[in-house]
Amino acid sequence: MLFDDPNLQETIASVLVPVAVPGAYTYKVPAGQSVVPGTIVKVPLGPREVIGAVWDIEPDAAINPKKLKTISRVYDTTPPLDRDLRRFVDWVANWTLGAPGMVVRMVLRSEEALEPEAPIAGVRRIEGAAPDRSTPARQRVLATMEDGFAWTRSGLAHAAGVSASVIDGLIHQNVLEVVSMPAAPPPPKPQIDYATKALTPAQQAAVDGLIETFDKTGGSVCLIDGVTGSGKTEVYFEAIAEALRREKQVLVLLPEIALTEQFLRRFEQRFGVYPAEWHSEITPKNRARVWRGVASGDVRVVIGARSSLFLPFKELGLIVVDEEHDAAFKQDDRVPYSARDMAVVRGHLSKFPVILASATPSVESRVNAELGRYELFELPERATGAAMPDLHVVDMRLSGPERGRWLAPRLVHAIKDTFAAGDQSLLFLNRRGYAPLTLCRTCGHRFQCAHCSAWLVEHRFQKKLVCHHCGHFEKIPDACPACQSADSLVACGPGVERIAEEVSDLFPQARTLVLSSDLPGGPERLKREMKIVEEGGADIIIGTQLVAKGHNFPKLKLVGVIDADLGLAHGDPRAAEKTFQLLAQVTGRAGRVSGGGQGLLQTYNADHPVIRALMSGDKHAFYKAEVDARRVAGLPPFGRLAAVIVSGPDRAFAEGYARALARAAPNDAAVTLLGPAEAALAMVRGRFRFRLLAMAPRQFDLQSYLRTWLGRGPKPTKGLRVQVDIDPQQF
Ligand code: ADP
Ligand code: ZN
Ligand code: ZN
């Protein structure tokens, strides 16, 4: 060996850097520094420096170290990523066919977290010192400081109810001294038995069963399938208490940030403290604090969006996935992954329990429970004893509204009665904006996005036409851009804003509120409005699918679904399941606490199996039919699916490439290859999209197959992108 000379020997480390390359890069470890797998480092990469993680130490790599760049910084005050987390990163990369560097990038989401937070200035009482003259303000300050701890100057002024000049005066007199104190003290620990509720027998049985699973070596997955309002949250709170008792950290995944506010308050009622939050809306400073706290073990419970799965927990011992059926857990990202499925993997790798909860579980989870892969806990009744809502169909073929109106007379009457009784109504329509399509009455011109194959949606509150796929927007013009006619533009179909307009017309005295994720004011406004609804400050709420997710609105009695058929039209085999879940969830908001809830579903398809299943209340019959259909078609969870999306700026070129890729596919009797076909959204952000679909039996190693295939395919050029989506949501 050329480099056997011990004087030449240097430590070489492979480092995962946040770029989309298949493996790790190698670097020299700076002399006198030591790294281990998992150590976080800064390394030169082309013209810049990036944060990465050491993945392996390669003392005898056959590379001339002289040719290697050197790690520029070792973060030795941050704990190295532990073995379980590293295995998880590798597992996710392997499963999704994503670049491991892009997966590790999700772990290293906060560069700020790697620097210890600088201490800040505080004041403390000098023992025995007294001011020359005692005033009531000064007395209050000294009384506030009785416990001897340090305070920030402004915090102390606020707590004592004095102006900052009083404090400055005491410093000047050497009664208080300026000291340095940590910027953020560690968060208080949850109290395990702070306020336990008396559980119903069904809840208690589920809790007992869940607690037993903590003793299973190898971990387990539990599905809590309980109707809306059955007290699932209370049940998994007790499992959280058990994990805390065992000195483990806990992660709760929620599909929607708008849900966290209510969850935080409930958590506080049960455990006496707030959990840490982790999602896209938290400030960089808090993000850094949570990341550090999770790694040090100071933070015991995190409630977060899917990205929190990649936090560097010191001793994670339980993950709860609430609303586990929700499609928000699987979003198209740089690395498309299902947070629900990856939570199960993380539990499996680290051998701790994972709890999935839903009133309408995914077909996948139901099947896994029925086959005994998951433990099943069912809560068939509401915890408060309240009856489930009465559901009725409003057949729009027989008794629809007049032209230009969207609420059928029967629904209008029900709203009127509910309002008169002082209760809340919720009108649900899964469509943001005012109208999904705008056209010219004179020439038929339709407003389409220039970058996507989608119509522009009118948002009347903001006076804009908006593309819901790329965010492109334009002002609503005064005249038709095609034929120049003035006053010829008409809005076709309803969105929530249009329903709100009709409601204001019909019920001018009622307090109405539109809950939609895209209104100005962002998540803060949404949180405020959710609270208003919860406290009874609104009479009629008009909302998108946002309102279907797990909220507890105690005064809500009536739920009207404006267009129950909206989700059914898709050519997507999951359409029935998704629509069933959405409608069961949204109607399940009615009468949760005190009963007397009612749901009215406006539909043109009163005989559709989804609508019939909802009316009969026989959820199990619906699931059985769905499961049978999936089994026959070999669809998940009975078969495996992967989509390969080819996209590029030139339509013909992208299509040609997709065809060439299809021809390069290895022949394997187990794999059925479909396509290429135009993707459901044929163009997004100016890129044309074609889709190939690979189907295989459950036991088949589809990832290996895809790797071989994509390795053989022609190299994508001219801005082409090939993305793999394992178990796509739409198929
Ligand atoms: P889920 O998560 O199943 O929808 P929640 O846990 O939100 O149900 O509970 C629904 C409502 O029932 C809440 O208002 C909750 O406070 C109440 N609740 C839950 N468990 C009990 C119980 N054991 N006794 C009384 N009320 C309960
Ligand atoms: Zn026109
Ligand atoms: Zn667009």
TrEMBL record:
The keyword Cytoplasm does not apply. GO terms for molecular function: hydrolase activity. Signal peptide: none annotated. PROSITE patterns: HELICASE_ATP_BIND_1 (PS51192). It holds the Pfam family Zn_ribbon_PriA. Its EC number is 5.6.2.4. The keyword DNA-binding applies. NCBIfam families: priA, PRK05580.2-2, PRK05580.2-3. PANTHER family: PRIMOSOMAL PROTEIN N. Component of the replication restart primosome. Belongs to the helicase family. PriA subfamily. This is Replication restart protein PriA. It comes from Roseibium salinum. The gene is priA.
